[in-house]
Design brief:
Layout: E1 2-6, H1 15-19, E2 23-28, H2 31-34, E3 45-47, E4 62-65, H3 79-85, H4 95-107, E5 111-117, H5 121-128, E6 133-135, E7 138-142, H6 156-163, H7 170-175, H8 179-210
Parallel strand pairs: 1-2, 1-4, 2-3, 4-5
Antiparallel strand pairs: 5-7, 6-7
Length: 218
């Protein structure tokens, strides 16, 4: 089973997939995460720019995308909040979202998910419709099954923000998907794949049985 994690950051979305033995490929444009000599290096991460670099090839069972949330954030210093305080009409840069739409269409994964902040809802609805789940102060769109999701941790972002207040990658820590959510995504996708494969095997068996010639009584 193969997962591709785009805009992977600290690898939160794919951590449970790695632990479960999936083949995981992470792609990010931050050298702190793909450079093996960096103290923040994240295993399985490759250098990748969404707008210019080639896409991975081959069958993908689960594709996850987490394009940067800066354009949609309602944090005090984010451009959206600044525009609101100044009474300026705000329209976010949608290049990476539109590129994400293209990527999903080109790669045609078996299942996919795309995560962003709550403030992205009305903007991303234009492209993906209503979000699939709302968990841990984030929204996730996609075509994955939505059975078994349950929020396991309250106030996680406040705790994380305080813990990494002076870190140069504080924003990445804040944006990192927690392990419990990664694992719920994995179970959702993996169990559905097992069901799909089982149903397909029954269809194959049904075809084989129907092609058998009945034995003659003579």
């Amino acid at each position: 089973m193969r997962m591709v994690d785009l805009f992977s950051g600290l690898g939160g979305a794919s951590q449970a997939f790695v632990k479960a033995g999936w083949k995981v490929e992470r792609y990010d444009n931050n050298p702190l995460f793909y450079n093996r000599n960096s103290e923040y290096y994240v295993p399985y991460t490759k250098k990748w720019c969404a707008m210019t670099d080639e896409l991975p090839t081959g069958r993908i069972d689960f594709l996850f995308l987490a394009p940067p949330c800066y354009e949609f954030s309602t944090a005090y210093n984010a451009p959206r909040s600044i525009a609101q305080r100044e009474g300026i009409e705000y329209e976010p840069d949608m290049q990476l979202i539109e590129r994400s739409v293209q990527i999903i269409d080109e790669l045609k994964p078996r299942y996919w998910g795309l995560e962003n902040v709550l403030g992205a809802s009305k903007y991303l609805a234009r492209y993906f419709g209503k979000h699939r789940i709302k968990m841990d102060s984030c929204l996730i769109w996609g075509n994955f099954p939505i059975v078994g999701f349950k929020e396991m941790e309250k106030g996680r972002k406040e705790i994380t923000n305080n813990k990494h207040r002076h870190s140069p990658i504080r924003s990445n820590h804040n944006a990192k998907i927690p392990y419990w959510l990664s694992d719920q995504l994995r179970k959702s996708v993996q169990f559905q794949m097992m069901l799909d494969d089982f149903e397909n095997s029954l269809m194959d068996l049904s075809w084989a049985c129907s092609s058998l010639t009945p034995l003659s009584d003579e």
